[in-house]
Design goal:
Number of strands: 0
Distance between the termini: 48 Å
Length: 428
């Protein structure tokens, strides 16, 4: 049986298990184990123990639970409300009013949490009741929150970039910095669209919609700005690794939650419990992916796929278009982390043949994952927003379509001008 047929069969089994409702880690691991048994019988399982240790014994991955704990503490202590309240005073005078606050709030919280789900849930839970109370366009409200939530995996600290870096041995610090300029561009493009649309429809917000002094708004935001600049600045300056910066950031976030928030011992324990659940799920997916990657390595699939793609003699533009189609389809079918851990072991060896910078590709990959977060039928941000309002899921989907188009525009800009992602890490 040819390698192509084997690969298609294993991936087909993966999609079948997902369609049957099996959890993502098992849906990834089972095809990997079956593939190993098919290749070399039970003797192929002898190395699974080494794969288990090698996949989890990673200094890079230790940053994940720390950043997630930071986000959980800030969400449960009510600090996400303070971020939104302060931004609402500063940003709501722009055309679009509180819709602009959604995007800026998501961008700011993304730089604290690194998680799209945490960003969408935190800002959405605070913002949506106020938007509906003020009779903002419902589709635009939920669409801006779902799309704004995707900024969580483009701005540092990005959980997706940490996972990509652990699979490819790429500098996580440089990946973090590579996401900053595209993240700011995407934020600006989202805000520009909201502003233009609001002016055309004469539905802009105003400063009068939000009560409170300018000084109070600044006081709400400054602590978080210091936390972000301290955490990311220490990485950029070379003072700390991402894991060390996450440790310090987690400690200072704890102090912020105790001083400015309502963090109690009970809420802290709840944050720890939720962090263990999330991290356990993520690491299980990563572990299952390493088993699958080992299986395809034993079968020589990586070399075969690389040779096949090279023999096609695709131009750079054709190769990127193929990636665009691949990830656009996968984004509608496979959970975001699953997209990374399944495809990176296959595609990463090909990058060298095309002279593609792995840091730049990491940013493109994260952009594709962002699209997957708001692509039906399994875009997770769609369901996060749906869970906190009384409308239809279809309205959430329709509300995100303009933001889909904006993301595709930024993808093409990144392909045409790689320095948008590479300039900042090149100056580290």
């Amino acid at each position: 049986m040819g390698v192509a047929i084997q690969l298609i069969g294993s991936f087909g089994l993966f999609l079948l298990l997902l369609a049957c409702g099996m959890a993502v880690p098992f849906a990834i691991a089972i095809p990997g184990i079956v593939y190993l048994l098919f290749q070399n019988g039970f003797s192929a399982l002898n190395a699974v123990g080494l794969v288990t240790w090698g996949s989890m014994n990673s200094f890079t991955l230790t940053a994940i639970p720390l950043f997630i704990l930071m986000a959980e503490m800030m969400q449960r202590s009510g600090l996400s409300f303070r971020i939104y309240r302060g931004l609402a005073k500063l940003v709501s005078a722009l055309p679009g009013g509180l819709l602009q606050t959604n995007i800026v709030g998501c961008a700011l919280f993304a730089a604290i949490s690194g998680s799209s789900v945490a960003t969408a849930a935190s800002i959405g839970g605070v913002a949506l009741p106020q938007l509906l109370q003020r009779n903002y366009d419902r589709r635009m409200s939920v669409g801006s929150l779902a799309a704004g939530g995707t900024l969580g995996i483009l701005f540092p600290p990005s959980i997706a970039m940490i996972i990509y870096g652990s699979f490819t041995n790429t500098s996580v610090a440089k990946l973090f910095m590579a996401g900053v300029i595209p993240g700011l561009l995407l934020t600006g493009m989202f805000m520009g669209y909201i502003g233009v649309r609001s002016v055309l429809r004469a539905r802009g917000g105003g400063a009068a919609e939000v009560q409170g002094s300018l000084l109070a708004a600044i006081a709400d935001i400054v602590p978080f700005a210091l936390l972000i600049s301290g955490t990311m600045g220490s990485i950029y300056a070379g003072i700390a690794t991402p894991t060390e910066a996450a440790s310090a950031g987690c400690f200072f976030a704890l102090l912020l939650c105790m001083i400015w928030g309502d963090l109690t011992w009970t809420l802290f324990l709840e944050s720890m419990h939720r962090t263990v659940q999330i991290v356990g799920n993520l690491l299980f997916i990563i572990y299952a992916a390493y088993i699958y990657a080992y299986a395809i390595d034993v079968a020589g699939v990586g070399e075969t796929v690389t040779a096949w793609l090279v023999d096609l003699k695709l131009s750079h533009v054709e190769f990127f278009f193929a990636l665009l189609v691949l990830y656009s389809v996968l984004g509608c079918l496979v959970e975001s982390i699953g997209m990374i851990v399944i495809t990176v072991p296959l595609l990463f060896p090909v990058l060298g043949q095309y002279g593609i910078d792995p840091i730049w590709f990491g940013v493109l990959l994260v952009m594709f994952v962002e699209l997957g977060q708001i692509s039906p039928p399994i875009g997770i941000n769609l369901f996060v927003i749906q869970s906190i309002w009384d409308g239809e899921l279809g309205d959430v989907v329709l509300g995100t379509i303009p933001f889909h188009i904006i993301m595709f525009v930024l993808l093409f800009l990144l392909m045409a001008f790689p320095q948008l992602a590479l300039w900042l890490p090149g100056h580290m």
